[in-house]
Amino acid sequence: MENSTPIEKADSVKKNFDLITDELSKVIVGQVPLIQNILVCLMCGGHALIEGVPGLGKTLIVKTLSQVLNLKYSRIQFTPDLMPADILGTNIVNQDEKGNRYFEFFKGPIFGQVILADEINRATPKTQSALLEAMQEQKITVFGTEYPLEPPFIVLATQNPLEMEGTYPLPEAQIDRFFFKLKINYPSPDQLEQIIEKTTEDYQPELNKVVEASSILEMIKLVKQVPIANHVKNYAVRLVMASHPDDHAAIEKTKKYVRFGASPRGVQTLVLAGKVRALFQGRYNASMEDIRAAVKPALRHRIILNLRGEAEGIDADDIIGDIINGVPEKVRA
Fold this sequence. Notes:
By secondary structure, the chain is of the alpha/beta class. The chain has helices at 6-24, 32-43, 58-69, 84-88, 125-128, 132-137, 172-175, 189-199, 213-223, 230-241, 252-257, 264-280, 288-299, 307-311, 316-326; strands spanning 48-51, 73-77, 89-95, 101-107, 114-118, 139-142, 145-148, 154-159, 180-183, 258-260, 304-305.
């Protein structure tokens, strides 16, 4: 890919994307937008928070994706009694043949490439925070020693809706470190019939490993090289600023229901995701439509409602929908 033209590079990424989605469709029914957004996170070096009720296939999607990408899969089942050492690993006293004792580090499940943090909001905030350094720095520190994590590295955390019993809201600092917050939809009747065929009958698809880690790392490098026009970047900035209640560009719902708007990571996410979406379509430039497609997953977890918004049960997606409709593509002279 190094000696290819920009158009050829974009075509190569689109080809890989199509191969991945076709392979996943052997096992996964529907959920194409969810799968695409997970791949966007991977290409941007980010992580995803996936929300949905139990039984919708969140775990199956992540496990199948790791098989297709030929990446090391690791699952962490979060429970109220889970401790940080259960995630990171710990030093254990060992003894050699001469009877000399020494510390040996036993790696925890964080040492994978595709990490499924299952039901992350069932663990206490202390344990949730054990993921922070790994997600941000792609390394962990145990007793003063740093241990790098093998790239590509992505954390895909699932969570049950907060109104369900036995859950702990994630700290704002950790939520902001997730590139996207994705919602998994309930399947349609036709999709339910396909699920029955694939799970209750003698159906065992053979999954092919269509992309190697080296190819993924090359595609990750390519993302930041994709050009984006100044007016498109300005559009992304104005979308984010419209989520701040004290900004002159704020829409009415933002002023009424929002306490804090999206952080600077929000606009970074919009631009990077827009570039990846362009590559997935075989284009080597990001458009405003690419930016719009990323707004909800990029901002829904970065907008903090005020007391009135919480009391009235306002959904951040509704506010974001109004922001998309209320922010013009072009700035008026």
